[in-house]
């Protein structure tokens, strides 16, 4: 599948506190002006005393209400508007034709566009074919607006069972201050309680994981919808369980699936955006061990007319020349080239392995066509059957290969956050694909 390199760089640039903790910076230490103390105590407002603005009906102070007290932070927040849906976004179903086979039967096969800035998160989820062409539950609103987060925290998990289209029109605030600060901009807060629980002992413990990473990770993580409660949940508890192997084992142990593949009936898992797990899970990256947070790399400290403040225009560290000069270059002769090399290698392998997974999927469907047709008929009749041992084995390999592949493909750094884990995970995807293709020959 030869085609232009996918442009996930825009995602890496615009993601809310997204991650760029590249693992090669072994000798680095966080910048003096982005220390853990700075993570806990963002720049003070211009006014010496700030009265909390009025909240909306969900208990959320909207971003615009803070613009007088935090003019610089607010203005840089608005700068994210440049990464709009009209700024030239890729359609991944066109850029990656194999996805039309790999995601068949799931909502992502209806529409899968490159993400825009988080200022457009609410608009994007309203307009994606995944919600306009298929009825969804309210869990799809998770992390798209702080108003939904506040509603869940107030009313409980029952909110997740509401219908998406019955609720989505109620909300009007995209990702903003409340997500990371609740209603107190002087501190960082985990507002997504499901992720706080999943962190285990690391939750709110700046010594294990900087809060500047935890608040970003509460949305930039791998999640699933609980089969019974439909609540947004994570497939782990604690940092050690945040590895691709452990996550897949968790899903296998629960017989969890997001959907049955339309052509093979394989029980598939759709991975989300596991940036936090890729950096802080398991053995962790060297950057994580050195105490870096997501904000250290993606939210630089700026000297403005009102004094020093933390920029809220989320960009790639490779676009921050001051950061490169004063911090990154102390360990890297050419970080831009190093990252480019990592990403090129990841892209080549993601591309080639996707072709193998597409091939094995089509071959499973062809070889077991009669049995699959019978299983579909039985399911339609309300008397679901059980696949043969041979078909089940092929389905398992399809599930595994695509899970490991997806874990890398949807992680928004294209391998830069953790090159070693990226290649190891792609190795497992390719091994499962090769085994399946050999068995189908």
Keyphrases for this structure?
441 residues; globular; Flavocytochrome C3, Chain A, domain 2
User: How large is the count of helical segments?
Assistant: 21
Reported by name, the CATH topology is Flavocytochrome C3, Chain A, domain 2
The main sheet comes to: 2 strands, antiparallel
Reading side by side through the largest sheet, how are the strands ordered? 1-2
What's the Cα radius of gyration? Answer: 22 Å
Number of self-contained structural domains: 1
Identify the CATH class. Answer: Mainly Alpha
Give the low-pLDDT segments.
1-7, 9-48
Q: Give the SSE string.
A: HHHHHHHHHHHHEEHEEHHHEEHHHHH
The CATH superfamily label reads: Flavocytochrome C3, Chain A
Rounded mean pLDDT score: 90
Envelope shape: globular
CATH-level-2 architecture = Orthogonal Bundle
Strand composition percent: under 5%
Helix content: 40-55%
- How far apart the termini lie comes to 22 Å
Give the strand tally.
6
Content-based structural category: mainly alpha
In short:
This protein has 21 helices and six strands. It is mainly alpha-helical and 441 residues long.
Molecular structure report:
The chain is mostly helical and 441 residues long. Helix 18 (335-367) runs parallel beside helix 21. Residues 1-7 and 9-48 have low confidence and may be disordered. The chain has helices spanning 9-14, 36-40, 71-78, 92-95, 99-102, 121-127, 129-132, 146-155, 164-167, 177-181, 193-198, 211-217, 244-253, 275-280, 286-289, 294-298, 321-326, 335-367, 369-380, 389-409, 419-440, and strands spanning 224-225, 232-233, 259-260, 267-268, 301-304, 307-310. A hairpin with a 6-residue loop joins strand 1 and strand 2 (232-233). The protein is globular and about 70 Å long. The strands form 3 sheets. The protein has a two-stranded antiparallel sheet.
